Structures are given as structure tokens and as C-alpha cells.
Amino acid sequence: MKATKSAKEIVIEFEAAWLLGDYATVRRLLADEVTFAGPFEAVHDADAYVASLERAGERLERMEIRKIFAADDDVAVFCDLVMKAPLPTSFVARWYTVEDGKIRAARVVFDGRPFASAAPPARS
Questions:
Q1: What residue stretches are annotated with the SnoaL-like domain (predicted)?
Q2: Which of the residues 61, 81, 102, 107 could staple to 31 if both were Cys, CB 3.0 to 4.6 A apart?
């Protein structure tokens, strides 16, 4: 019997898929009713979160992971997101909660001030 993946392994796979633009894998790793909260938007389903990640991915050059912490079903990723010019590099804290092998919640914190003029309008 194959052991199930840890929350940390799931998050690492998710982050790698996002960086590669593999949105089919990104979607597979999300619970249907995933919640996401960040400086510019909050969404409450997987398809909306994937769309948000696709928009961000268009502006991303690379991600430099600084540290990953895991405690049970919670995983925190601290990284630098190196964006395509003229956007700045941003230090980002990402907190994921994994349930039943899928990401159930994602929260992202960073200084959004340099990005405010480039952000899409908030959705209602």
C-alpha cells in the first residue's frame, strides 16, 4: 500500500506545478471549495484560484524559496517572487492548509504597495 503524501509534499508539488505553468496539476491539488485570501483578492473555489494563479504566473519570472515550515496539515512557504520588469521582487509568506490530500486554504501576505497600480480590479 502506497503511503499518502504529507501536507509539505503536496504544497511543494503545487508550488512546482505553478512555476511550470502546469495548471492541470495545480487544479488537481486543490479542494473544490478552496479558499484563498491575498492582498488584492479573495476567492472561494478552485477554478477562481487557478485563474488568479494564471494571472500572477504571467508576471512571474521565478520563485526563490527561502524556507518551508510544516506542522501537521499546515505548511508555510517563505519566498522571494522575482517578477518580470518593471515589477519588483517581493518577499512573500504563503500559508496553506491541506485536508484529505488537497489544499483547502491558502493565504498570501506581502507588501502590495509596489503592485497596486498593476493589480487587476478587485472582484465583487
A1: 13-104
A2: 102
Cis preceding-peptide flag for 86 (omega within 30 of 0) = yes
Contact 96, 103 (CB under 8 A): yes
Query: Which option is the CATH number for 7-111: 3.10.450.50, 3.40.50.720, 3.20.20.140, 3.40.50.2300?
Result: 3.10.450.50
42-43: strand order across its sheet: 42-43, 30-37, 102-109, 90-99, 74-83, 60-71
Q: What are phi and psi of 42, to 5 degrees?
A: -135, 135
Helix (H, G, I), strand (E, B) or coil at 7: helix
Residue range 66-97, pLDDT digits in tens: 999 999 999 999 999 888 887 778 899 999 99
Q: Which residues of the chain have pLDDT under 50?
A: 1
At 77, give phi and psi (nearest 5°). Answer: -120, 125
